[in-house]
């Protein structure tokens, strides 16, 4: 039996409507992905939009570079359509992420049309408040300098690291705007920032110029992607998690290339380190400052930045106590991450709404514990060992491998603690309107 022209036209119209639903949901999903959400949140957001628009989700495939979606008409099992949308630059933007979650909630209530959703997504991308790039660069430099204090640099190196971080973030800002290759950007920023931080630290008489070099590039350490990578794998999205993990590894490689080059140049001037051991109050203070600085980098609102600083202080307090009790870096960091996640979960009990972005506030509070310098030390050590031709330094190999293992176990412990606490103390990933 041949369908009549009117029947065929009706089918086309329904397919076009399904296409609009799919594209509206994909636009929301891509905005969530690009602003730092994990796979589960992206999937839930897409499904909420599809359901609110009167359709059913058949399948969602979330990849690193694209998201595909198959939907069907809620009243017709045989009427389906599949669409794919490319994901843009991956970043962390809490205010945009919260706006996308709120949009998904409103769409799930059936009060919006597909066209209105697409239009609002475009508007949110343009109108969501952002900190001025100078403010972000200053905050990022301050965060790097605070990291340096946590890693044992002396007070003399504080301003050089701050300045180096400021310059590095400025370069990154304009290279991202010009859509330069991410890995080329990482190498250039790592070289310039580490060279500035190390050289100025030496010139002003710092006894920790090498650690100043590593501290100056901690703005490049992909803390949130590394956490999301493990969380995605743990929550059933191994393909996306593996892609994120590989990207994190590549970023660390290119970061190390930039630092290794500047280190090779500056070490000719006789740089050496005498790291300092600071007390718990010092760690709480600079842990909070570092977390707040990265909160600004991640476009947290000013109110949320304050909560993030408290989280960073809690993290460093627990980790310092753990290290003093001889728990080791990995276990101390794991317990600290658990404490910060509990703190963030308790914020839901406050009479005022605190936009935590799911786990994003907890991750920002844990970022001062990410052993970025340990990863760089390990990779530089392995590169140095590989360049030796006759007399291999076995001790160097052992220390480099130990540094890399410490990084893996520490990051793994932090991500596991955040995920487990989130499972035990469940809170909604999307706001209630």
SSE string, helices as H and strands as E: HHEEEHHHHHHHHHHHHHH
List the strand order in the largest sheet. 1-2-3
The tally of structural domains comes to: 2
In terms of quaternary structure, what is this? single chain
The biggest sheet amounts to: 3 strands, antiparallel
Secondary structure category: mainly alpha
Rg computed from alpha carbons, rounded to a whole number of angstroms: 24 Å
Residue share in helix:
55-70%
Distance between the termini: 49 Å
Pfam families: ThrE (PF06738), ThrE_2 (PF12821)
Domain Threonine/Serine exporter ThrE: 285-422
Subcellular location: Cell membrane
Domain Threonine/serine exporter-like N-terminal: 25-262
Task: Tell me what you see in this structure.
With 433 residues, the protein is mainly α. The chain folds into 2 domains: 5-127, no CATH class; 133-424, no CATH class. Helices cover 68% and strands 5% of the residues. The chain contains 16 helices and 3 strands. It has helices spanning 5-34, 39-52, 94-108, 114-127, 133-151, 158-177, 182-203, 209-215, 223-234, 238-266, 280-297, 302-324, 329-346, 360-366, 372-387, 394-424; strands spanning 55-62, 66-73, 80-86. Strands 1-2-3 form a 3-stranded antiparallel sheet, covered by helices on one side. β1 (55-62) and β2 (66-73) form a beta hairpin. α10 (238-266) crosses α15 (372-387). The protein is globular and about 70 Å long. The termini are far apart. The model has no long low-confidence stretch (mean pLDDT 88).
